[in-house]
Amino acid sequence: xxxxxxxxxxxxxxxxAGMELGSLCKRGDIVLLDGELGAGKTVFTKGLGKGLGIxxxxxxxxxxILQVYESGRIPMYHFDVYxxxxxxxxxxxxxxxxxxxxxxxxxxxxxxxxxxxxxxxxKVSISKDLQKGFEYRCIEVTGD
Length: 144
Fold this sequence. Notes:
Elements: E1 2-8, H1 11-24, E2 30-34, H2 41-51, E3 66-69, E4 76-80, H3 87-93, H4 95-99, E5 104-108, E6 122-128, E7 137-143
Parallel strand pairs: 2-5, 2-6, 4-5
Antiparallel strand pairs: 1-7, 3-4, 6-7
């Protein structure tokens, strides 16, 4: 399993990191995105979408749980499972159609549904380090 650490000193860097990963993604990839509130998950996601060729406005699906973007070279299924009460709620959404479909799944707060995740996911963790600056982020990408 490969591991890459990217230092981001501004939103533009975080966006670029997402865009680079998006350009490498292939159909069926599942990206697990972790980071505290305000870490830059939405900026990274916008970059990932750009890397997939998506020209739609990307926003956080916190209240809808799932946003589908189909305008790129590969569709992106953006899950935010922060408000999921149980894995059974994921069944109601029909998650398997997305997880095993022809797009790229991006899942925020994936630890809440760990028992239904495939083992070969790409993991992205974004963390802050205020000692290195207010906008500094450490982006760790693990996976094939």
